[in-house]
Amino acid sequence: MNNASLIPTSNPDFFLRKAQPNKKDCDLIVKYLNLLGIHQKTPMTKDPDAIRVLILAEKCEIYFGICRGTEIGVTCISEIISVCSGFTGFYMEGFYIEEAYRGKGFGSIFMAFLAKLTLERGHKRLQWFLMDDNESGANFYHSIGSKAVPAMSTYRMNEEALQQMAAKFPYPTQ
Q1: CA 149, CA 155: separation in Å to the nearest integer?
Q2: What is the mean pLDDT of each run of 10 residues along the chain (174 residues)?
Q3: pTM for the whole thing?
Q4: In terms of Cα–Cα distance, which of 120, 123, 112 is closest to 82?
Q5: Within a domain: residue 173?
């Protein structure tokens, strides 16, 4: 590991590192996403090439948490806009820290880094989704000053639903 690529933190044993579009990093990202998927009871990608394509296309940034030279967690951010609020920001997806390293302050350091990165990029918001039954996650996020958005639900169309709906619009989009 190239020490020049390590981002120092307030804990001398803990660093952050931006993921690269190489096999090792993409395989590790998929591993962490699938561990998160088990916790959330949600299927996650098993395709490291899909992750590599997203990184290369600069559609997201992925960071690892590293404790004493070993990756122990990951998070992914991508830019978002809110026309309603007039804000830009980052959407955080896939925030995961290995069980053995939770409760040791690494999550708070990760979030402090993301907050600073958000502001340095000129954004006013960092947001994410949390499964309703994730009480420990909710407690952590409340402890760092975040608030749940009341009375909102997430809706999503998968590829099949998108194809069915798109078929109802037979005109060019441009």
Answers
A1: 14
A2: 81 97 97 92 92 97 98 97 93 94 96 97 94 89 91 83 92 90
A3: 0.90
A4: 123
A5: no
